[in-house]
């Protein structure tokens, strides 16, 4: 079957837009093909700094003929309905319609519509101009004389040529004939802007890709990345260094070149006195270059690797020299910023925070830092941190936001605080907290390790969450401008991975007055409910992402209305999951749910709860007595195990109920004819439910 080749050749496509543009082109063309009944075999899109390209293979040569029956109005129906039917179906009169007989609903007109399929070439000629004109660029422009004409094309940069061919491999393809702003689609494209700028005549994708390569254009973005990475590693290795890999930079650089040529430059040794991260940020941000490390010295080398877009006649000497001049100037600036920052102690910068508003409803940054200090001091005993060190770390943690280096490179916040704290002689734990208190910043980021860092990280996130909850700036389904979900997940991950028991509602209710002293106890309680649900939702998402069953999470969240700690929830879910995988667990679940179902039915019927203690004097069967005795033993043992946070032990204790529960349901008639006996047995069933609720609400567990 025929293949489509489409290329849109323009002046420039910004690197940040290329990947999405390629995907948009593939999606728009293939969606339209499917909508036209043209199911294809495969499609792949490509982008370079000057072109978007798409190949779609295995497209039918023409649409299938369409035969359709369309039901119309009743015979004798209103004239308006008949007229609408004729117009919609294209029939000249009702004489061309059939009548469908229906004894019950009456007779209806039926139109038999036969629509012959069109050649795919014609379909493409209609759809491609629309796709080009409606292409969703984040930013687009009009240019030249064409821009003054009505309906002028808006494109990311001036569009110069369109290649569009369609045909089978063994024949000369057809050109998809259409034009946009006087640009006629054809078979002509162009090679590298400098090394091979001449026009190239292409036929189909294989021919197109190979001719571009001969004209110094690597079409596939992944191929360009592979070339850059392999050559950069080899160039570094040849001089005894190692490339500092950077996937984000690699993605960007591969979008800046069509013919990647990797070169190495150097900078003065004196700049190695700057922290390596500052050197890397300077070179990366200003010149899009990679840095290399010296494995023997254990630090960066005074070298960098750049990616040129041309094979220069001088071997790249002028290109390297130009980059070296710029990098030397930028590193000079960075060294000046760093040296200047070292002259002022971190705490001496803090008064400026009194004039910087953190949030209009939450006061200044200075006020926020004071709150974080208080929370850090409260967190310290929970996490095994020294209280005074935690307070000191919280006091200094944000100070580097006011430094010159962080002003220039915001991505280095926290890290520079650590360097400056160490330089002024702070304790290593206090210094580490400046960097680590922002962690984790995403699902792949590590949580803090040092107890002081853990205390400050929790304090920072908890203050943020409580503050915005207090002023009703909670996230919605579509908006989370203050990244509160990320902050909550950070608290959850720290609590779980560092084995710290936290109660979100309690955290809020004990501290919310620091933000909103005007709140009443009722308002605090309502906010606490909302805060608790928010954390439970985040924890549920976290556990489900890790493979936990949602019903097990629900089963341990609310036990007799009490808030369960984050760590306890995780441990209970783990223990419950293992327990339910055993035969004892499965059978006890069945028995417990049977008890709950009977109770639910009888409580609804009697409009009352059977929650009082059973009367042992009314036990007439051994199975009743045995179950009652087992429940008393299990309740005490399970509660003791839960108090010690031995949830696996609590589950093992619950397993002791299984024989007694099984025997009870085998031998005992719950709804006895004697009303007092019936009530007593229902109370005994409620005791089963109460005993298991010491660990989990089994009624919420799915079979």
Keywords:
703 residues, alpha+beta, 5 domains, 7-stranded mixed beta sheet, 4-stranded antiparallel beta sheet, 25 helices, 14% strand
CATH architecture of the largest domain: Orthogonal Bundle
In terms of DSSP E residues, the strand content is: 5-15%
- Give me the number of helical elements: 25
Q: Which class of the largest domain in CATH terms?
A: Mainly Alpha
Helix content: 40-55%
- The low-confidence runs, each spanning 5 or more residues with pLDDT under 50, are none
User: How large, in whole angstroms, is the Cα Rg?
Assistant: 36 Å
Average residue pLDDT: 93
Structural class: alpha+beta
Q: What is the 3D form?
A: flat
Between the first and last Cα atoms, what is the distance in angstroms? 51 Å
What is the total number of structural domains?
5
- Number of β-strand runs: 20
């Amino acid at each position: 079957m025929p293949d489509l080749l489409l290329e849109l050749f323009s002046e420039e496509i910004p690197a940040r837009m290329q990947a999405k543009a390629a995907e948009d082109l593939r999606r728009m063309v293939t969606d339209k093909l499917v909508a036209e009944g043209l199911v294809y075999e495969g499609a792949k899109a490509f982008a370079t700094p000057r072109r978007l390209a798409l190949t779609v293979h295995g497209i039918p040569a023409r649409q299938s003929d369409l035969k359709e029956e369309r039901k119309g109005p009743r015979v004798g129906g209103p004239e308006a309905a008949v007229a609408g039917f004729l117009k919609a179906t294209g029939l000249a009169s009702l004489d061309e319609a059939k009548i469908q007989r229906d004894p019950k609903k009456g007779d209806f007109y039926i139109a038999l519509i036969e629509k012959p399929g069109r050649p795919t070439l014609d379909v493409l000629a209609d759809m491609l101009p629309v796709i080009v004109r409606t292409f969703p660029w984040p930013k687009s422009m009009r240019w030249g004389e064409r821009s003054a004409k009505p309906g002028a094309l808006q494109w990311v940069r001036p569009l110069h040529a369109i290649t569009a061919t369609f045909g089978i491999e063994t024949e000369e393809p057809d050109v998809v004939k259409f034009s946009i702003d006087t640009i006629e689609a054809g078979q002509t494209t162009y090679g590298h802007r400098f090394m091979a700028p001449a026009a190239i005549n292409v036929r189909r994708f294989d021919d197109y890709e190979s001719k571009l390569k001969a004209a110094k254009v690597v079409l596939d973005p992944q191929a360009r990345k592979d070339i850059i990475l392999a050559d950069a590693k080899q160039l570094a290795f040849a001089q005894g260094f190692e490339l500092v890999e950077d996937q984000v930079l690699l993605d960007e650089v591969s979008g800046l070149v069509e013919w990647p040529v990797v070169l190495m430059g150097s900078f003065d040794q004196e700049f190695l006195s700057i922290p390596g991260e500052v050197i890397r940020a300077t070179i990366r941000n200003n010149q899009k270059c990679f840095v290399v490390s010296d494995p023997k010295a254990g630090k960066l080398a005074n070298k960098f690797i750049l990616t040129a877009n041309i094979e220069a006649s001088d071997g790249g000497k002028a290109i390297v020299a130009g980059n070296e001049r710029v990098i030397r100037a930028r590193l000079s600036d960075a060294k000046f910023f760093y040296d200047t920052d070292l002259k002022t102690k971190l705490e001496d910068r803090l008064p400026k925070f009194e004039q910087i508003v953190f949030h209009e409803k939450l006061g200044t940054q200075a006020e926020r830092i004071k709150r974080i200090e208080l929370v850090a001091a409260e967190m310290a005993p929970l996490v095994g941190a020294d209280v005074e060190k935690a307070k000191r770390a919280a006091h200094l943690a944000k100070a580097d936001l006011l430094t010159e280096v962080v002003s220039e490179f915001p991505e280095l916040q926290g890290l520079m605080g650590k360097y400056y704290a160490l330089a002024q002689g702070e304790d290593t734990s206090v210094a580490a907290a400046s960097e680590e208190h922002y962690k984790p910043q995403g699902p792949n980021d590590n949580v803090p390790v040092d107890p002081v860092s853990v205390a400050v990280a929790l304090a920072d996130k908890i203050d943020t969450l409580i503050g915005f909850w207090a002023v009703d700036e909670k996230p919605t389904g579509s908006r989370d401008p203050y990244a509160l979900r990320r902050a909550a997940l950070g608290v959850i991950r720290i609590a779980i991975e560092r084995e710290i028991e936290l109660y979100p509602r309690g955290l809020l209710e004990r501290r919310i007055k620091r933000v909103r002293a005007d709140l009443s106890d009722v308002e605090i309680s309502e906010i606490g409910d909302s805060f608790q649900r928010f954390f439970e939702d985040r924890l549920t998402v976290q556990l489900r992402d890790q493979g936990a069953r949602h019903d097990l999470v629900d089963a341990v969240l609310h036990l007799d209305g009490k808030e369960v700690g984050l760590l306890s929830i995780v441990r209970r879910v783990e223990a419950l999951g293992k327990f339910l995988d055993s035969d004892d667990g499965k059978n006890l679940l069945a028995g417990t749910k049977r008890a709950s179902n009977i109770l639910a039915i009888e409580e609804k019927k009697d409009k009352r709860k059977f929650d009082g203690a059973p009367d042992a004097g009314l036990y007439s069967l051994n199975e009743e007595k045995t179950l009652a005795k087992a429940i008393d033993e299990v309740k005490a043992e399970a509660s003791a195990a839960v108090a010690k946070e031995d949830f696996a032990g609590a589950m093992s204790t619950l397993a002791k109920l299984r024989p007694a529960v099984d025997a009870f349901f085998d031998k005992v008639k719950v709804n006895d004819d004697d009303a007092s006996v019936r009530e007593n047995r229902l109370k005994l069933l409620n005791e089963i439910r109460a005993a298991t609720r010491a660990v989990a609400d089994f009624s919420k567990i799915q079979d």
